[in-house]
Design a protein that fits this description.
204 residues, alpha+beta, Nuclear Transport Factor 2, Chain: A, 2 domains, five-stranded antiparallel beta sheet, 5 helices, disordered N terminus, Cystatin domain-containing protein, Cystatin_sf
Length: 204
């Protein structure tokens, strides 16, 4: 017997509502294009692409082994910022430009070029979680830094990914925080801190 639109679905909702939920689930779980494909689509959105690509020599190598920033590098970094706000970025260590965001600490990926500054990174994460606690009325502590990206501004900025535990509620959350380091170096500003967000993939 055919089920009418007003009849009940096994999940306890009407069939038409179940169909809508399935459609939304299908939309959310549709296959995300590979990053290379997303990057090509993103590059096409630059109205000044021709200007950025002019006189570009991808084979030019600087004395330190890096190359000048290309249009592809610019678009790739902008895509990282769009999708993850700078908390997950590609490897730009081959780019000889101070404006890139570099991963300086990520033990899981065997990146430890910033390990010397780990005590400062931990202090920044603690400052960020204290600000979060004050804003949200929480009691997170016991900070564990997972990953850190750095950008050369003011004079530098940390993109921190870290875990913290709230003993009063017995929960552990992963956080993201952007912290600016000023001159003198002891002055730090937490730009924002939040529970880690999923990527916002570019899928036009």
């Amino acid at each position: 017997m055919e089920m009418s639109s007003s009849s009940k679905h096994p999940l306890g909702v009407s069939q038409d509502k179940a169909d809508v939920k399935k459609q939304k689930l299908d939309e959310l779980t549709k296959e995300i294009p590979p990053r290379e494909e997303r990057l090509k689509l993103f590059m096409d959105t630059f109205k000044n692409r021709a200007y950025l690509e002019q006189d570009e020599d991808e084979n030019e190598v600087l004395s330190d082994g890096t190359h000048p920033m290309t249009f592809r590098d610019i678009a790739s970094l902008e895509l990282d910022l769009y999708e993850t706000d700078g908390f997950d970025v590609q490897d730009y260590s081959h780019v000889g430009d101070a404006s890139v965001i570099l991963t300086c600490y990520d033990p899981e990926a065997n990146i430890n070029r910033g390990a010397f500054y780990l005590p400062e990174m931990i202090e920044c994460a603690e400052q960020a979680i204290n600000q979060y606690n004050g804003e949200k009325g929480k009691h997170f502590g016991d900070v564990h830094v997972i990953k850190v990206n750095v950008e050369a501004v003011c004079p530098y900025r940390y993109y921190l990914t870290f875990e913290a535990h709230d003993a009063t509620e017995d929960i552990t959350e992963t956080f993201e925080a952007k912290v600016d380091i000023h001159i003198p170096i002891t002055e730090r500003t937490v730009d924002f801190v939040r529970i880690r967000q999923p990527p916002r993939f570019y899928c036009p």
